[in-house]
Amino acid sequence: MTVDRKVRVAVVGAGPAGVYAADILTKTEDLDVTVDILDRDPTPFGLIRYGVAPDHPRIKEIIKALKRVMANDDIRFFGNVNFGTDIKLEDLKGFYDAVVFATGARRDRDLQIPGVDLDGSYGAADFVYWYDGHPDAPREWDFQPHAKEVAVLGVGNVGLDVARILAKTADELLVTEIPDNVYEGLKKNATTDVHVFARRGPAQVKFTPMELRELSHSPTIDVVVHPEGYEFDHGSMEALAAAKSQKLVVKVLGDYLAKEPTGAPHRIHIHFCQNPVEILGEDGKVVGLRTEITELDGTGNVRGTGQFKDWPVQAVYRAIGYYSDNLPGLPFDSNTGVLPNDGGHVLDIDGSPIEGVYATGWIKRGPVGLIGHTKSDAAQTIKMLVEDLPNLPAPESSEREAFDRHLDSLGVEYTTWQGWEKLDAHEESLGASDAHPRERKKVVPRDEMVAIARS
Fold it and tell me: Could you tell me which residues are beta bridge partners of residue 100?
């Protein structure tokens, strides 16, 4: 691979996928490259900042590693830049040899059952963005005083996060980075019982062992695993034999199943082989959930039994997965929610690669896998990009500051890495000076974040 010019690459999306792509690029031998990372949020780190529950500081440790990458002088950050509104693909191609999309998946996947639009039926992503203080989320959450029993649909880590936040007291979360509006909102939460529903059995849940164990770390919560549906078929046993982590998950579930409740004021119930088929309502509000009882079919999958059960819940949180946004000017596979790609190149509607356009992370493979998968994803994509570079045309404006001037000419109030460091320090100072001192307290309003970063 020989490229006899300074290479400029734009990465759209400042979450782990985008940062890892930039890191791999700038460490490529015999390549003189600089990378600009763009994001519509004023802050970097994507779902690490706005998708991880605030009581999970260990997971947020990944930010320290991402900060080290972003401190590289060959990598710049442009926040508060919205692809499709502030900047288009054609614009980026005028400044960069290649563009990598790492925009992730931010919204809830649709659930096609009756009653999903009732008042009291919520998407988990919306709730997560609220309690994580995303600037585009509403400032208040509609906690109803009568909603003491709540359903969570989905058995991934997001479902567990939602269940745990609903079951914890607001005061327990004061040691975290939650902003004041989230604390005041959580004080209105009347939930005493959170029911988590799984379509299949314990061997098929998508929890990680650490997340599952942490459910019981609160003194105000009892975790209750119900024996109905707690079954294993041949396919389940094969899955457990092949995955050590899944064995650990089942062991933790078994420990919860055997444990007597302590009488804690809040309970998280885990139900297996219950397939949600309808959200029940009266006068436009959620009053219950109807599930069909399922049974394992021998392969680890389930079939319906034709038997149904109604659960008296007053709110439903749908945690069945994330879904990516369609990016303006690019093809989109609406079935899988990804940019069509061959493992790295974004493909046009005729299946041919779009010159100089690549994808990595969840927008490439869908919202599955952990951080380790994101690194290998980025490596695969960047390998293709580097192999293509000798045949890619140079941009019209290759000067590094040309893109800054373009944004300035458009009046875009973009933030930078230095601006993020100011905001970072400001949030830490808010946490240190709070009546309940903690590591940081988040700033929520977009205009306030931008003003601090650009000051």
Answer: 11, 358
What H or E segment, with its residue span, contains residue 291? strand 285-296
Report pTM: 0.95
**What whole-number distance in Å separates Cα of residue 153 and Cα of residue 138?**
22
DSSP-derived letter for residue 337 is: T
Q: Are strands 315-318 and 149-153 parallel, antiparallel or unpaired?
A: parallel
Q: Average pLDDT in the 413-436 region?
A: 97
CA separation for the pair 425, 423 (Å, rounded): 5
255 contact partners, CB below 8 Å, separation of at least 6: none
What residues does 10 pair with on adjacent strands?
Answer: 36, 99
Residues 6+ apart with CB under 8 A from 60: 48, 52
Question: How far apart are alpha carbons 43 and 80 in whole angstroms?
Answer: 8
Q: What is the DSSP pairing of strand 353-359 with strand 322-323? A: unpaired
Q: What percent of the chain has pLDDT over 90?
A: 94
**Residue 71 corresponds to which amino acid?**
A
Element (H, E) at 194: strand 193-197
**Token output for 162:** 């939602």
Confidence of residue 409 (pLDDT cuts 50, 70, 90): very high
Amino acid identity at 273 = C
Contact 158, 47 (CB under 8 A): no
Q: How far is CA 324 from the centre of its chain?
A: 10
Neighbours of 214 (CB within 10 A): 17
The 10s digit of each residue's pLDDT in 227-269 is 999 999 999 999 999 999 999 999 999 999 999 999 999 999 9
Query: Rounded to an integer, what distance in angstroms lies between the CA atom of residue 421 and that of residue 247?
Result: 42
Q: How far apart are CA 143 and CA 148, in angstroms?
A: 10
For 262-326, where are the alpha helices, taking DSSP H only?
A: none
Mean pLDDT of 352-378: 91
Distance, in Å, from the CA atom of 51 to the CA atom of 66, rounded to the nearest integer, reads 16
Alpha carbons 293 and 199: distance in angstroms, whole number? 8
Per residue in 139-176, pLDDT (tens digit) is 999 999 999 999 999 999 999 999 999 999 999 999 99
> What pLDDT was estimated at residue 433?
96
CA distance 150 to 158: 15
The contacts of residue 356 (CB under 8 Å, 6+ apart) are 93, 96, 97, 98, 99, 388, 392, 393
Closest by Cα among 119, 106, 182 to 146: 119
Q: Which tops the pLDDT comparison, 1 or 125?
A: 125
How crowded is the C-beta side of 353, counted as CA atoms within 13 Å? 16
